[in-house]
Amino acid sequence: MMSGRFRSIHPFLLLTALVALALLAALAGDSQALAAQKVKVGVYVTDPAQLGSFEYQTDRSAEVYSYYHSITDRFYADGLRPVAASGHILLLSWEPWDRNADPVNQPAYRLRYITAGYHDEEIRRWARDLRDFQYPVLLRPMSEMNGNWTSWSGTVNGNSPADFIPAWRRIHDIFEQEGATNVSWVWAPNRDGSVADAVSTFDLYYPGDRYVDYIGLCGYNWGTLYNYSWWKSSWQSFEQVFADSYDVMTSRTSKPVIITETASPEVGGSKAQWITDAFTALPARFPRVRVITWFNIQKETDWRVQSSASSLLAFRQQMWKLGPADMSGNYASLCPRPAMAPAWGLTAYWANYSDYYARRLSVDFEIRNFGAIDAYNLRMTGSVCTNGVQMVSPVPQWVGTVPAFRKGYFTLVYYVPSGVTSFWATNYAVGENGCGVAFIYPNY
């Protein structure tokens, strides 16, 4: 029960009000609510059949399984259905190109040709296939569009950054037309190395909240793998890799965040420590992150968590700290409700002489979000009082956004009958979590 104790600060205040603000029934001690705030784990292995081996070695199930498909492929429904049926959410990277051709120079797959409808038939086939799959799919089309290494990148293959948003929206609209309501949309640029670059990425490539469900970020610690004239890689912490992009994206939109690709090499530092630091940083520095997806293959280097005994042990230790995986297989598990905590020491007062004589008592409330989930569009919608006290404030009353670990404030005015020296009020609120899903407090 959320409660607030109020004291007089006005010289004409003749009664003391003890007010309880009940926004959530015993949430502070609810371990299930706290568990819901933990980051989910995703993994990419090249074959779904390898997923069980990864989970055995890391001693924990991965809630999200990452997979890649080209527009020219047939959807691998038979191989992915058992994965989804076992409670994994599919994160599908969808790539409009010919995987067997030059990855950059593919004129047939220029962005403006997607917008012009040249590939509508293939897109509709994909929309129907994913719709008929029925299980939830996090769809990540045309990721890392702010790079220069794919045919849909904004600065190569005859494209311009201005071509990207119309192409994305056309793909999205076709999926809507085909009824693929089990698909959620992940917009995932490559991480930027500065705030200015991240702002440019958002401004040039973001399709708009109407067309995006999650912000995805791809980023790696490249260690000391490369020493070119045009790029010399250096060891970067998880925070250094993602901080600039995360800060910009979360300031521009309320959408939740998924780390869609990340990993570290063994070259240039301690991979085991990098893993430990990454998971430690998530709840405090990156509270909007819902999923961290490990790129668990050998490609440019051995990115796998099992590249060394120390790396694997560090990853296992973080999995143990996270506790059992949530294998509910639904989007709701990625978007828990915000957690509200008690607030004390607030005030009740007559605002002026007129209110004093009219028995209109103003009560200032403080509502604290003690969890890692931001509360959006929070509004007070009602107040039920004891001892004949009546609320006279108009409702709903806007509180606004209450970020993780922050406080929000609002004031309600009550009519207090003569002779009443204390009363209790139970207040009601509605809001949204980061996915735009509505919640009600108290939840009874």
Number of helices: 11
Euclidean distance between termini CA atoms: 12 Å
Biggest sheet strand order reads: 3-4-5-6-7-8-9-10
What integer is the average pLDDT?
Answer: 88
Largest sheet: 8 strands, parallel, barrel
CATH class of the largest domain: Alpha Beta
CATH-assigned fold name of the largest domain: TIM Barrel
Shape: globular
Tally of separate domains: 2
Class derived from helix and strand content: alpha/beta
**What is the percentage of strand-forming residues?**
25-35%
| Number of distinct beta strands | 19
Element-level helix/strand string: EEHEHEHEHHEHEHEHEHEHEEHEEEEEEE
**Over the alpha carbons, how many angstroms does the gyration radius reach?**
26 Å
- Helix % is 25-40%
Extract low-pLDDT stretches: 1-37
Q: Let me know the CATH homologous superfamily of the largest domain.
A: Glycosidases
Under the CATH scheme, which architecture of the largest domain would be assigned?
Alpha-Beta Barrel
